[in-house]
Design goal:
Layout (H helix, E strand, L loop, with lengths): L13 H23 L7 E6 L9 H6 L3 E6 L4 E5 L3 E8 L2 E8 L3 E6 L4 E4 L33 E2 L8 E4 L8
Length: 175
């Protein structure tokens, strides 16, 4: 029986290249939203590790979400700023406006359910003690959003180390 030849070692680290490119898709979608606003029915669910290096959020939010948090960028977000390595946004939580800073490397899931698009990333699960404490509150200027969390995701098979595309299953959302 003929055995297939042994695979050569990946010296390019293709999974890392793919992850970098797909994080660029997320960055560009957020940057366009910062410049132009959200078109049509587009909206984003962004899940991130709250203790990843460079994450900035108020200590009361870190206490409530010690490992992971999902935010929704849809109708009521303000001051979205997108940089090369991170984005910042003001969101309301129980009538309190808070500034969040989220490095792209901390994001585990980025989804736009309006077009059934999503990306899932590998992020080191090792917590960091270097979570940046942000000011406790920003004066509210509009009513708070009603964030909703995803209740179902249909994951498409992907490379074990590479980010994965997934379909956003049509579900009912609850605040």
């Amino acid at each position: 029986m003929n055995e297939p030849p042994e695979m050569a070692q990946d010296l390019f680290d293709y999974p890392k290249m793919v992850e970098t490119a797909l994080r660029g898709v997320m960055r560009e979608a957020l940057a366009e939203t910062a410049r132009e606003g959200l078109p049509g029915d587009h909206h984003f669910y962004v899940t991130f590790r709250t203790r990843a290096p460079g994450v900035g959020l108020a200590s009361h939010l870190l206490g409530k979400f010690p490992d992971e948090m999902t935010i929704v960028l849809q109708h009521q977000f303000r001051a979205l700023e997108v940089g090369d390595d991170a984005f910042s946004v003001n969101l309301s939580f129980q009538n309190r406006s808070e500034r969040l800073r989220i490095p792209f490397a901390a994001v585990t899931t980025f989804a736009d359910p309006s077009v059934n698009f999503g990306l899932q990333f590998e992020v080191s699960s090792a917590p960091s003690a270097e979570v940046t404490a942000l000011p406790a509150q920003i004066p509210p200027s509009e009513p708070p959003p009603t964030p909703a969390l995803a209740s179902a995701l249909e994951i498409r098979p992907g490379c074990e180390r590479a980010p994965r595309l997934f379909s956003w299953a049509a579900t009912e959302w609850s605040p």
